[in-house]
Predict the 3D structure of the following.
Amino acid sequence: MDVPVIVCSALMDTYALTQVLTLGAYDYFSKPLSEEVMKIYLPLKVRNAIELMNRTKHIIHLSQIDSLTGFYNRSYFKKYIQDYPQGLDQPLSIFMADINGLKITNDAFGSEFGDQFLIKAAKIMKRTLPPEAVCSRWGGDEFVAFVPHCGKDVAERLAIEMRTEFLKSNKGGLNLSLAVGWDTLLNTDQDLAKIMICAEDIMIRSKIFEDVSVRSNMITAILQHPS
């Protein structure tokens, strides 16, 4: 379905042509092929078919990407998890992250200002996690990352590093924080979906624990922030 097909046949009647195009062929040639067709028309149609294939791939890629952060979107990540071969690349860890204080920041300064924190969080995750990590924007201010060959000790270190780097990057007294939860799949008896739920539960507990102090600091910072 992803490859443009050019059909060459000795048949040239309307029925054959209709059948070929109905089946999804990109183009059609009938034999015998003249020298003009071989030198001019066939190469031109092949080039156009390749350009169509590349444009289609680009459109599909754009449909899988969150335009703000450059991460994969939720629908792509859900399918990725569903299709991932069970028992491959163990141990593997799943991270869930959420920005504390983003809603109140958006309410005070607007969503465009708040978007900068989403971009910053995405950059920190991308920089901190290994190259093979598959990162996605899961919701409004939530992220998820799938990291193969990542055990518990490494996952804990990466979670701490992401939180620390996000706090260090705060400016202007707006002390937003990054709540991070993670869990690790160690054997085939475990289920990826349950690992992800556990990571989300840990993230939510972290968010609840930090939320009161973050909101208090944010309100103070907003009142002091120049409008």
About this structure: The chain has seven helices and six strands. The mean pLDDT is 87. The first strand starts at residue 6 and ends at 9.
